[in-house]
């Protein structure tokens, strides 16, 4: 199968949208990712997947820490910016949890230290041990077939 067919098949899986953040040299860095999952309750572990060409790869390797910010339905601009879809420079004001920059008003800010990592094809899988978190009410930003969306609650 070709790459386009594979990507199309993977796009059939609806996901939430996250921005991965870290702090390096007193500067906040972010990267949009929808490759995120919970791994374990005891210990509390999550997994993110970072491409070998992503600038964030070296930053996470160097800092050993990252935060997963689960975006709300009103935070599409954050996703687009940190995915490189918005080219002009934006100055976002971050919140801070355990000295890690996090996206303000995200549904969840999950702060992690690297527990382990595994190179898998053209990505590195980081398993993070959750060291702190903040949660908020709201509805998630979604991603399906290459498009952003929102969850619509249908009355039963």
From TrEMBL:
GO term, biological process aspect, one: pyrimidine nucleobase catabolic process
UniProt key word Ribonucleoprotein: no
Record keywords, A-Z: Oxidoreductase
GO MF terms held by the record: FMN binding; riboflavin reductase (NADPH) activity
Domain Flavin reductase like: start-end pairs: 10-150
Claim: Oxidoreductase is one of the keywords in the record: yes
Pfam family, one: Flavin_Reduct
InterPro entries the record matches: Flavin_Rdtase-like_dom (IPR002563), NADH-dep_flavin_reductase (IPR050268), Split_barrel_FMN-bd (IPR012349)
SUPFAM superfamilies: FMN-binding split barrel
Protein name listed in UniProt: Flavin reductase
């Amino acid at each position: 199968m070709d790459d386009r067919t594979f990507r199309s098949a993977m796009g059939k899986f609806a996901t939430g949208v996250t921005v991965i953040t870290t702090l390096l040299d007193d500067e906040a860095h972010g990267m949009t990712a929808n490759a995120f999952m919970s791994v374990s309750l005891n210990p509390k572990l999550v997994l993110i997947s970072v491409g070998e060409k992503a600038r964030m790869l070296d930053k996470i390797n160097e800092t050993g820490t990252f935060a997963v910010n689960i975006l709300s339905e009103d935070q599409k601009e954050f996703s687009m910016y940190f995915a490189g879809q918005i080219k002009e420079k934006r100055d976002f004001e971050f919140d801070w949890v355990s000295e890690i920059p996090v996206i303000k008003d995200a549904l969840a800010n999950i702060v992690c230290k690297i527990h382990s990592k595994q190179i898998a094809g053209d990505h590195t899988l980081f398993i993070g041990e959750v060291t702190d978190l903040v949660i908020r009410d709201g509805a998630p930003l979604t991603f399906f077939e290459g498009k952003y969306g929102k969850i619509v609650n249908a009355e039963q």
